[in-house]
Amino acid sequence: MNYWLHRISHVAELSYPLLDKGYLTIGFSDFTNSELIDKVLANDWNYFNGQFQEMWGTVPRTRHNLWNFLKMSKGDIVIIPSWGTFFVCEITDDRPLLIGETFSEGLKSWGGKSVSTNGTHLISENGKAYDLGFARQVKVLYRQISRDKFADAKLTSRMKIRQTNASINDLKTSIEKSIENYKVNKPIHLHSIIIDKTANLVLDAIKNELNPDKFEKLVKTYFKTIGANEVSIPAKNESNKEGDADIVAVFENIKLIIYTQAKFQKGQISEWGTTQILDYKTNKESIDDGYNKVAWVITTANTFNEKAENLAKENEIQLINGLEFSKMLLNVGINLLNTNL
């Protein structure tokens, strides 16, 4: 499978309606004949050049655009730049089409103008042949993707090239990433990119520079920064205690209490912390004080084991690994980290 960039701005008033019907087009209407297609598919470069010399009296560089178009293969992906957007199409035919083969009853150009055919070319209402010579049958996979939101710098730059088409196999990763981001509606955002690239550095610093007590204080500082009215570390010998919470954060304005286990660990964390915070929260829920109560486990570890994840799902406990907590810290602001722990 190859990746191509191809423009259809030439004769846009008909090229876009044809794209809606599943046809990708190109000009070169002077060369509309089956023999040219046969020769290109047979890699007869001499015949191809000879046709331009015979018809136009010159062999222009733009002929490469037609050659590329006719050489596209079934399954190839084509990016079509448009006004601030781009389309993603897949070639579905086994052989290029002559433009007349795209005609169907009711075909209209922009403005609802009727289109007819003389058997070889598509003809406008005033009887003039459109300068379209060949077509490829395509499946439009995605329409009008915003360049600003979903095309990275490399893809955006390439969509500015002047020629009609070009191979862009070197942009495979950029194209696939743009499509995936579009599918999940995740626009390119500098803030998000910086967070993603920085979070690992923050996590490494936390693991290497802090200890369990200082990590608890960092979590406490986080809750204060996001608006908790009161943040405390319960006494370890608390009376009538069931389970354990390292930090209790009270958000008075929204009547919410978050009970948190803070685990300064590496690798994978067991279900122990999840069980402890669940027991603590369950005990506190017996107090009818009008507050909603939720439970979190925040850790420097990479993952939670399966038992912890299942327990959390069953009891609506929020599990936050080291990387995710690092992102949370960065989202609140770097000044949060400028504190003595």
UniProtKB/TrEMBL annotation:
This is Restriction endonuclease type IV Mrr domain-containing protein. Transmembrane segments: none annotated. One of its GO terms (biological process) is DNA restriction-modification system. GO terms for molecular function: DNA binding; endonuclease activity. InterPro entries: Restrct_endonuc-II-like (IPR011335), Restrct_endonuc_IV_Mrr (IPR007560), tRNA_endonuc-like_dom_sf (IPR011856). It comes from Petrimonas mucosa. Residues 209-329 form the Restriction endonuclease type IV Mrr domain.
